[in-house]
Amino acid sequence: MRILQGLFMLSATAAVLTACGDDVDNDDPGGGGTGNVGNTGGSGNTGNAGGTGGTGGSGNTGNTGGVAGGGGGTGGAPACDLSGAGKAKQDIPSSISGTTKLTSDKVWTIKGEVRVVDGGVLEIEPCTRIEGDGPSKGALFINRGGKIMAQGTKDAPILFTSQLPAGSRGPGNWGGISLLGKAPNVSGELSIEGVTNKDAPENKHGGNVPTDSSGVMTFVRIEFSGSEVAAGDELNGLTFGSVGSGTVIENVMVNSTYDDCFEWFGGTVSAKNLVCNNGGDDMFDTDDGWKGTVTNAFGRHVNPNSEDPNGYEWDGTSDKANPTIDTESTMINVTMCGLGKPYAGGSMYGMVLRRGIKGMLDNNVVLGFDASIDVRDNFGTLASPGVSVQNSFFALPLVSATDDDSKESPAFDEAAWFTGGTNNKTDGFGFTLDDCLAANGPTTAVTGSGKGAFKESADWMTGLWISWETK
Ligand SMILES: [Ca+2]
Ligand SMILES: [Ca+2]
Ligand SMILES: [Ca+2]
Ligand SMILES: [Ca+2]
User: Fold this and answer.
1) Which among 65, 179, 67, 175 has a CA at the least distance from the CA of 113?
2) Distance from the alpha carbon of residue 213 to the mean position of ligand 2, in angstroms
3) Which of 197, 211, 257, 431 could lock onto 226 through a cystine, CB 3.0 to 4.6 A?
4) Residues facing 371 on adjacent strands
């Protein structure tokens, strides 16, 4: 939020009072009148050291001359508590065919495979905690024709997490979430990864409904997910199998997952405001003819585990010789940070771009990887590359010293591709890798850089839906 210069001192004072709270909502003069917005005010105010709704109300008074302050103060509801303390636990039914609502007064458990089948709707209240069972590899699947309606808010998000106590949690404590839709993919119908019986009808995705909807996920955090179903076959944090463009995916964080944070297999779903922290493999992996746009995304490695933990890993199809249709990935306003040191487990690139892909990178910031780019297979020519890149900052080295042109067909000069794009730079990031990898989350040097993920806003990656805890 930008404020006139004369108001800045007042606002800064209020910002201190509200700490990490949400004083944007409190500022809204229209918000004071409604109970819901009042509640949001209350939760933001709890960000003060031991503050109460009433205390926050007085802070808001200083901010906006009392109009909105009254509303925020009288809202008075307790802040969202996602700890689960004092709440009864209940298993989610393993098959949901009607409408099932998960209320925030309980902690819900995903035991084994939980399926929302054709016609079923899984509604989830804001501020609901859902735990994935470890021993049974709890995992949630929204099958073709099913929907998830998970509409959290910035300070009352929906949390999918581990059953284990803080301090002993880690990637792979439970499965993850897979949305399976009816949108097109590279080969009509595909089977999803990370299941024991891939050929079962419920594990198929794909169709001819590009505008299909698998529901809504907003202000959701998925953490400590990614259990291994069979050797080398893990679930991602959030998997999209042929998910259609009618689906809304905004403000979703995947934190500390075993495989990829986000992976798209075909489909047409776009997304906005995605965060990937501490994935084991890739941050944003697209395959099998996905056609969509991601706007505003942040990713960083902390402790990856795969042999090739990349930022992007994009493929058109698994058939190298005969890609049938292209994956078309458009990524706008993205910041991705690697480890900034050689990765002992294998190779780690900002992006590995392979056969059968098209797309566009705009305002992408890439640093801390072994090299920023590796192109393989058929990526086109410099005059007509599969993917274009502009207004972006990629750290040196752009290309690995061991880049193997023989794995490209035709051979492709990655560095010339980047430097030949419009307005691309290899310096002037405005922040360091240490800023990006700070234990408590990227510093204001990153979020205030006006680049990459934070070009549109410095504060979208705040609120209770964000956590940088890795155990
Ligand atoms: Ca991957
Ligand atoms: Ca990978
Ligand atoms: Ca290459
Ligand atoms: Ca090359």
Assistant:
1) 175
2) 28
3) 257
4) 349
* CA-based end-to-end distance of the chain: 33
Q: Find the 209 Cα to ligand 3 centroid distance in Å.
A: 35
The answer to whether the beta carbons of residues 127 and 82 sit under 8 Å apart is yes
Which of 31, 34, 36, 42 is CA-nearest to residue 67? 31
Between CA 453 and CA 333 the distance in angstroms is: 5
Task: Give Cβ neighbours of residue 420 (< 8 Å, ≥ 6 apart).
Answer: 382
> CA-to-CA distance for 374 and 309, rounded, in angstroms?
13
Provide the whole-model pTM.
Answer: 0.84
Mean pLDDT highest for which of 19-28, 36-45, 188-197? 188-197
What average pLDDT does range 149-169 have in this prediction? 98
Ligand 1 centre distance from Cα of residue 285 (Å): 6
Q: Which tokens hold the place of 67? A: 């109009």
- Cα(383) to centroid of ligand 2, in Å? 28
pLDDT at residue 53, as a whole number:
34
Ligand nearest to the CA of 259: 1
- Three-class secondary structure of residue 393 per DSSP: strand
DSSP per-residue codes, 307-352: S---SEEE-S-S-SS---S-EEEEEEEEEEE--SS--TTS--EEEE
Ligand 3 center to residue 442 CA distance, Å?
30
Report pLDDT digits (tens) over 259-271: 999 999 999 999 9
Classify residue 262 as exposed, middle or buried by CB count within 10 Å of its CB (0-12, 13-18, 19+): buried
**How close is the Cα of 355 to the center of ligand 1, in Å?**
15
43 Cα: distance to centroid of ligand 1 (angstroms): 37
Task: Say if residues 409 and 375 touch (Cβ distance below 8 Å).
Answer: no
Residue with tokens 């004083």: 23
What count of Cα atoms within 13 Å lies in the side-chain half-sphere of residue 24? 11
Distance CA 54, CA 72 (A): 8
d(CA 348, ligand 2 centre) in Å: 8
Beta-bridge partner residues of 359: 329, 387
